[in-house]
Amino acid sequence: MSEFIYLDNGATSYPKPQEVYTYMDSFYRRLGVNPGRSGYDICMEAGEVVEDTRQALTEFFNGTDPNRLCFSYNSTDALNLIIFGMLKKGDHAISTTIEHNSVLRPLYHLWKYNGVEVDHIPFNSQGFVDPDDFKAKFKSNTKLVIVNHASNVIGTIQPVGEIGKLCQENGIPIAVDASQSLGKIPMDMDALNLDVIAFTGHKSLLGPTGIGGLYVREGLEIRHTRAGGTGVRSAVQTHLDEYPFRLEYGTPNTLGIAGLKAGLEWIKAKGLDALFRHEMELTTMLRDGLQKIQGVTLYCQDDLTDHISVLLFNVDGMEALNTGTLLDVDYNIACRTGLHCAPRVHDHLGTTQLHGAVRFGIGPFNTEAHIRTAIDAVSEIAEMQSKRG
After folding, report:
1. Could you read off the pLDDT of 299-311 as tens digits, one per residue?
2. What are phi and psi of 225, to 5 degrees?
3. What SS3 state is found at 295?
4. Verdict on whether the full-model pTM lies above 0.90
5. What are the structural domains of the chain?
6. What does DSSP say about strands 310-315 and 296-298: parallel, antiparallel, or unpaired?
């Protein structure tokens, strides 16, 4: 069988750097205890790994207080803490049609069951939202703007800095879903005028699954929506108000945090700009190759400025699932098909009736040879389909 080619990095990065595997194994064998809960040496040392990772992540996007970096289990978990902790009956929220279900579903739940009003800003033909559209929706009861920084479907990087400036001028908090962007592109909370960042560790940060988090700017508070153990001040009956305990509950995923630490260190060593440049060179190569194939439709890929390394397409006349199956079975290429947990994007693109589209997600370990093979494979599938038609 031909070499296995992984082009599903939008779902999770794979493989991870060898340094991540090695460090996680060493950490769990040596320090696999409950961190910071007791005073013995390896417990304290495990706690130091957690706090070092908290500090490193905070510095990575120019946060100011590591204690306001709260670990969760993924972006969905973090976004639920944000959305349910910041909105209540009578409030108004603004989001976009480019969002993942980790935002769409909590907002829908609050609209249906809690009387929260929600507006969704549409994106244009190139895949971008207009900051002025947000301003036009601001109301006296607007309590949250929440935007997907980089689309997991079409790869467009939204102008969150401009949106954030408008929010700041109007006293409205803005949260961003940085699931796809953090670890790929530079992110500075001050420069982008952001109040809250939600992230996951298993995508561009090159860590394992089951770890993520959020960062909350000083001066903004998120209500408790859960309660539980914190390992400190156990006699207090209410959940603690101070960060990070305010939004952390129970034993953390210490092994995941260790892997996230190793992934972040690898990215810093290689250079964020160098990694992004490599991925986008391959994305451009892939886009250019697919554009030349008769019977292939690309979505929002005409200009790759302000894009990450995610590319969406369909073979004309084929359902996305069938294209993906052929890529897997006949060419040993792994990709993602369907609606990508972002149904409003596909409604906008008109791909819902095809049950979505095919997504290639390029990562740091992909090569030009992988891209050439993928282009050839899609070309053969498109040619076969045209003969059938």
Report:
1. 999 999 999 999 9
2. -120, 0
3. coil
4. yes
5. 5-15+271-388 (3.90.1150.10), 18-269 (3.40.640.10)
6. antiparallel
